[in-house]
Amino acid sequence: xxxxxxxxxxxxxxxxxxxxxxxxxxxxxxxxxxxxxxxxxxxxxxxxxxxxxxxxxxxxxxxxxxxxxxxxxxxxxxxxxxxxxxxxxxxxxxxxxxxxxxxxxxxxxxxxxxxxxxxxxxxxxxxxxxxxxxxxxxxxxxxxxxxxxxxxxxxxxxxxxxxxxxxxxxxxxxxxxxxxxxxxxxxxxxxxxxxxxxxxxxxxxxxxxxxxxxxxxxxxxxxxxxxxxxxxxxxxxxxxxxxxxxxxxxxxxxxxxxxxxxxxxxxxxxxxxxxxxxxxxxxxxxxxxxxxxxxxxxxxxxxxx
Length: 305
Known about the structure:
Mean pLDDT: 85
Number of strands: 8
Helix content: 40-55%
Low-confidence stretches: none
Strand order of the largest sheet: 1-4-5-6-8-7
Number of domains: 2
Distance between the termini: 38 Å
Largest sheet: 6 strands, mixed
């Protein structure tokens, strides 16, 4: 059982408890207003069903961590991504299309759309950004002259591993949120530098001692899964490279199959055979991707790609 006083915000339970419930929406509003452009400041928001299905039977289901809408109509997907995943950027674009398509109106319609934002809190660094110190990336559609062509579709990514400021060097509200996302669970009390109504609320709802027995169990399970998966995947990758390619492949394959069984249940023979045929690099990518799997369908979709 954890002895931490506060929850880890990078676990599924922690992230959704703080940002994904109606009683705590003031925390999500404050966080969004730190990363959004000034013209789209959020005053209030409504949580929407985080499960969306496409218009045809062949469309895959999209399940977001948090899906909400501001009082002026802007739509937001807010997600935590704990490890690199194959085609992560593709997935972000794909998920955004659900929020666009659901705006279609029956009958005559002028195609006017509300703005759609995808906000990703990443516990990893993009491969193509390793040498770029920028923490927050704002991506939008631009023309060949780097002029904004369409300002209603934005992707905002926060690469948390790049944030390394200690608590005595926090300069602004943005710094404070990044620090808490990474280090809240390490704190024993609320530091003076993190004073203010919003952060007082955060520390209040994040205190593990206030959880019900059911909530505590859910958090412990979420924390254990977060720690185990990251540790096993990281360790297997390091050991696989040290032991030699073939032995490394066998070790990685065995670990990934065990993790998949734990995550999505017993694998059908066809899926197991496909996993067994993957290369070491593909197995490493699958080890990172399965952190976000919730069902066998997710594995089969990844294998199809």
